[in-house]
Structure formats: structure tokens, C-alpha cells
Amino acid sequence: MPLLRIDEPGNADHKKPMAGTYQKDLQYAKFSAYGFLKNLKLFEPFLILFLLEKGLSFTLIGTLYAYREIMTNVLEVPTGVIADALGRRSTMVQSFLSYIISFLIFYYAAGFWLLLLGMTFFAFGEAFRGGTHKAMIFEYLRMKGWQDQKVDYYGHTRSWSQRGSAVSALIAAAIVFVSGRYDVIFLISTLPYIVNLFLMLSYPPELDGEVHTVGSIRQSFRVVWQSFKMSLAGQEVFRATTNVCIYDGFYNAVKDFLQPIVKSLALSLPVLIFLQGKQRSAVLLGLVYFCIYLMTSQASRRAGDFAARFATLARPLNLTMLTGFILGSICGLSYLYSFDLAAIILFTGIFIIQNLRSPMSVTYVSDTVPCEILATSLSVRSLVTALYTAVMAFIMGVLADHLGLGQALMILSLGLIALAPLYLVKIEPHPKTCTDTPPMDQ
User: Fold this and answer.
1) Domains of the chain
2) For residue 135, which phi and psi values (nearest 5 degrees)?
3) What is the pTM of this model?
């Protein structure tokens, strides 16, 4: 993915963010619309149920998730080179085309190998998109002189993504309710992505960033490899990178396992018994995900206010991470003893914490890591997250098949709590020694 330079004052530490002073202009509306349309992935609330209906075990589902994450990062360098040659807007168009092809493959897929092909095209879409849109947002903030508003601005635009997810859940539930099929939602998911494709073409050319020639492939590989080695060299940098990535990986690995829990509750409730099982679970899933994404939208929107309550971002990042893991362990225990409603409520907390953390974690890396290795840390952030996601998704699948979903979630969460001393970051801010922030891809 293309790199971005952001010039900002060298503050010695990340203190309380100021209240938003940016303008909600036309480009702000476009950034928000992008997030809203991007998250109209109608299949998401039903993906695991769709895969289970195809006859896949939890282990194979975990394998698909792990494959998607690994492929996304294997493709990071070649798609990044293409992005440098095409510019950010054209890169995003390529991303949406890859997503659309993947949705069509999922619609027609009948077995594991076609599903694997669908995941491959989905990985292409993720790799092309990566941090490209974040880079466009941060470039716009630089152009406007609003660099100190990153948490608040990004949190507000990201809240529209969560609203899109909320609307998506209701639309998907209605489609499954009427059609009685999961595969149809993949076909309809192509429509908002086609609209987003044209929206991206309306972005101003100034957000394309510096365009390079494809002849820089060898140099690009060399830069990424050096960045990877440097990011793992220092213990403090490793802690910072792991802290912002470990919860992302946990969330990505477990979030869709909410679906079987909601289905279990739907089939046990003495209501809507005149409906078929798939219709009952569709109604409850739609309502649950709608409520969850309304709450996560507010969480993302208020991330700046939440961060302002602390002297540095390290404390809320540590606090929210541990809280999320604790919720995961109690959620697994609740589901183990058939307290499905309690498990759903606790699972909701995992979603909320992820969306509260995301704007803070992006800013923490860009503001707290020493300037001389900032680009390095950011360039491998998505790779580290994907590795954690792949490992945890596979572990979840295997444990769920052999021990049950509740035990799997509980064991994974408790294991992450036990390992917490390895990635809790220091409360003291790391001093910055330069006035120019190196390139970054997130």
C-alpha cells in the first residue's frame, strides 16, 4: 500500500487531544460515505452460519479465516507496488473490483475449494485497500493543517462505518427472512461496492499521493524487509506494536462466532415459534447486530473524548485490552452454561472495545513510537495483526470442534490474559526527537 508523509510538530508526548476544530466539509462527507458503504457487507452477520450450512467444520472455518489473513499480507508488497504505480484512488478501485469478484464466487460456491478461491479474491481486496484510505484521510488532514485532530476526525468518520454495519444487519436479516437463503446476500452485497467504486473516483487527485513507477519493485521489497526487521528489533517497539495488534487479532478471530450463540438463543426462545428456524435466527441476528453496531458507532465517535480523560494513550489502551479479554473469558463461561443472553451481552462489549480502541491505537503508533522507527512500526502493523488473527482463528476452530465454542472462547481469552505482561505498554510517553513524521501506511 502507498506510503504517506505527515508533517507535524514534534511534541514530546501525547497529551489530551483537543476538541475537534476541523470542518465537516464535502470531503468529510465523502470519507463518511465511503465507510458507510464499505461496511454494507450484508453477509457478515451470517458468514459462519453460511459456512456451517455448506458442511464445513469449525476447524475448516478457522482455516479459511487464517488463510484469508495470511494471503492478505502475502499480497501486501506486490499490491503495494501496484498502488504506488496507480495512485491511491485507482488502488481503491482495484480493491472494490476484487471484493465484487469474491462476493460472486461465494454466491456460486458449492464446496471448500471454491470458498478458498473466494477468500483469495477477498484477500486481494483487503491488500489493495489496507491502509490506503487511512492514508488519504491523514493526507487530507495534513493539507488542511488538522494533524492534531487525528483521533477525533478518524473516530467520527469511522463511526459511519459502524452505522453502515447496523443498517447492513437489518437489510441482511430481511433478505434471509424473505428468501430463506444465505447465499443471496453475497450477490446483493456487490451493489454498495459498485457505488463506492464510483465514489472513490470523485475524490480529489491531490489525495493520490506520490506516484512511482513499477520499476521500484526491488526497492519496495528491500524497504519492507528492512522495516520488518527494525520493527521487531527493540523490546519497547515490539510491545507497542503487539499492544495495538493483539486485540485487533483477537477481535477479528472471534467476532463472527457470535452468530452461533445468537442462533442458539433464537431457537430456544418461546417466541416466533410459527417461523422456521432460519427465519427466527435471521430476525434475532438482525436485531442484535443492529443494536451492536449502533453502540460501536457511538464508541468510535467518542474515542477522542475517552482518550482525553487520560494523560497518555498507553493507559486506556492497556485498560481496554484487558477488559476485552476478561469479557471474552466470561462470555465463553456463560455460553458453556447455556446463559446465551448473558453471552451475547458480554460479546457486545468485545465489539464496543474494539471500536473504542481503533482510533486510539492508530494515533498511538503515529504519535508515541520514536520518529526514527515510526514508518517501520506502521508498515508491519497489519502484518502482525494478520498473524495474530490467523493463529487465533485456527485455534478457535480446532478448540470449538473438540471442546465446544464456549470452552474455546474461554481458553483463548484466559491465555491472552496470562500473556498480558508481554505486551502491556509503559504509561510514560516516549519522547520524540524530530519534527517530521516519517512515511506511514496506516
Assistant:
1) 24-203+221-428 (1.20.1250.20)
2) -60, -35
3) 0.78
